[in-house]
Design goal:
Layout lengths: L2 H5 L8 E4 L2 H9 L3 E5 L13 E3 L2 H9 L2
């Protein structure tokens, strides 16, 4: 199954979507999710207005619990 297909059931929910691949974050954004891109060497220079880059799971926890 392709990620796009898997994400369709969450379309428009505004749920968080955690990924390390920019392309998959963009797929989540297209489905109406809130993508969080975990920073890794392969995506250090990636920037997108609708995608939040996070350093680690602690950063994700802080974003989700204290928006």
């Amino acid at each position: 199954m392709h990620k796009d297909d898997a994400l369709k059931k969450y379309k428009g929910t505004g749920l968080y979507w955690v990924e390390d691949k920019p392309k998959n974050c963009e797929a989540g954004l297209e489905q109406g999710l809130k993508p969080l891109l975990i920073e890794h060497g392969h995506n250090m220079d990636y920037r997108h207005d609708g995608i939040t880059t996070v350093k680690n799971w602690r950063h994700i926890h802080d974003l989700v619990t204290h928006p």
